[in-house]
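Weekly structure sync, notes
Attendees: PL (lead), two postdocs, one rotation student
Agenda item 3: pending single-chain targets
PL asked that the sequence for the first pending target be pasted directly into the notes so everyone works from the same version. It is reproduced below exactly as submitted, 297 residues in total.
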Amino acid sequence: LQPLLELNPRDVSDVIDDFGAPTIYQLVTTKDAVPADFDAKKAEYIQRYRDTKAAQALEERRKALADPEKVAWVDQGLKLAYDAYLATTRHRAGKTKDDFQALLDDVSAELAVTKSDSLIVARYVLFQEVKQTSTTEAQAEMKEDEAEFLAEVLEILDNPNLRVTLANLYIEIERPDEASSSLSVAVANMGSFEAEQVAFVQRVEARTAELEKAGKFTKDQADAVRQAVKQWRDAKAEEERLQAEIAKEDAAARKAAEEEERALRAEEERLRKEEEAKAKAAPAQPAPAQPNAPSTP
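Predicted structure, written out during the meeting:
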């Protein structure tokens, strides 16, 4: 709030970051006076002043730490990955193709020296930004690099949909063996058998038939994908069989537990009735004799 000290009455301040909130102040009037209760609450006012100064100092420190220009980067690769993240997210507005290309060149140069998972991902993301702002003719010439960059990403972060994307790229650049392999791995890496995975495998199967019919796949290449699909379906059937067995065993265990509980209750009821019968059959005990009261002379 230091800028407020320079205001004159009726002046309006610039926008001030008041503890994280943009604020505009207007000075109405000034007067040299202390609160009426200053003497009685002097210690409280002093503490409040100290708290305010401490909060201001903490906010200035936070801003300094948050300024990326003041961060001392030890690893150039991590700095480039962070710059790529900012350029494609929070600082994306106003960025041009040349901006993305320059950052992509820096990332690629760093990758030539040091392999880094974060840089491999950053390179692919930046490449996509450059591609989207390129002409159709330029995009066609970029497919080889796109396939190479995406293949490296998939070595780090497996994603079945991206593997299909890679397969389609391989088809476009006439590398059908690698397209067949990419589709096969996409199916083989399906980790579950939910409806979403079933639908995905069906799409891969349909895409394979489509490519074979169009002459993009040979029979052997299509069969390789179909074999992966068969193995996945066999695994799915085995999983369903095991789950059915588990469900059957659980049901049998529940039935046995219920029967045992019914038997215990029947036994408890039998014992209760037996005790009641014994109690009824037992001879009644005579009441104790009462002593006679003394006679009055």
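Discussion points:
- The chain has a mean pLDDT of 85.
- Residues 219-281 form the longest helix (63 residues).
Action: rotation student to compare against the earlier draft before next sync.
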